[in-house]
Amino acid sequence: MGRVQEREAWKGNGFLFLVLSILLLFGGIFLLTGGLAFGAVLLIAGLLILPGLVINQPNEARVLVFFGKYIGSIREDGFFWANPFAMRKKISLRVRNFDSEKLKVNDADGNPILIGAVVVWKVVDTAKALFDVDDFEQFVAIQSDTAIRNLASQYPYDSHSDDKPSLRGVPEEVAETLRKELHDRLELAGVEIVEARISHLAYAPEIAQVMLRRQQAQAVIAARQQIVEGAMGMVEMALHHLEGHGVVQLDEERKAAMVNNLMVALVSEGETHPVINTGSLYT
C-alpha cells in the first residue's frame, strides 16, 4: 500500500451554510408550532449543518477523515463548511524549533564529546505527518538525535590541517550536512527542514583538560613550524641579497655561522643580545 498524499478537501463558504442552517432551524420550529411534521425534517437538517462549520487559523490545517478514510485537508485560513460527519484533526503549519539535549558521542577520532543542535522545521504534507508515522513530533525528535550522533562520528572535533574538515573548523559545511541528512530522514513524515545548526560543542568533562593541553601543544607546534619556515625564507633571502649585490663574499663556513646567528635571532622567543666579534672566525 502506497503512502497517503495530501490533497485538498472539498469545502464550502461557512457564512452561507451558517445562514442556511439558521433558516432551516427557524423554518422547522415555525412549521412544528403550526402542527406540520415536516418541520422536524427541517430542524434536523439545520442541526446537521452546524457540526460542519470550521474556522481555520493562519498557518493551520484540518485533516478530514470520513469513516477511517482520508478525504482531504483544509489549509486555507477562514470560515468554511465541510463534511459534518468527518473527523477533523488539527495540525499546525507554523515553523517550530527542536533543541536537542547535549548528547555524549564519539567523534571521528574516537574522542568523547558533548554535542547539541537546533533544528528548525515545519509540516509541509499533513497527510504524511498524520498517517505515515505514529507521532510526527516524536519522530522529529528521535530522528534529529540520531542524525546528530551520526554527524559527530563523521568529523573530528578539531583539526589543525586545512585540508581536513572538523566540527569546529567548518561549521557551515557541518550544518549543511546535518540539514541534508535530516531532510532525507524526515521527508517521509511530511516535514521540511528549514535550518539545522550545532548549538553546543565541547569535549566530554573527563578528557576536557587533557584535550585542552593537547590542543595547546598542537597549536604551539603549528606556530613553531610556521615561524621556522618564515625564518628560513628570510635567511635565504638575506644570503641571496648579500651575494647578489656583492656586499660580502662568504664561504660555506661563514654562511653556516651567519645562518646559525640569524636563525637564533629570528626563532628565539626571548630578546637576543648581539655579540661583537673583533677577531676572525678562523682564529
TrEMBL record:
Record field: transmembrane: 12-30, 36-55
PANTHER family in the record, alphabetically?
BAND 7 DOMAIN-CONTAINING PROTEIN, MEMBRANE PROTEIN-RELATED
Note the superkingdom of the native organism: Bacteria
Ordered alphabetically, the record's keywords are: Membrane, Transmembrane, Transmembrane helix
This protein is called: SPFH domain / Band 7 family protein
Q: Describe the location of the Band domain by residue ranges.
A: 51-215
Question: One Pfam family name from the record?
Answer: Band_7
Q: Which residues form a coiled coil?
A: none
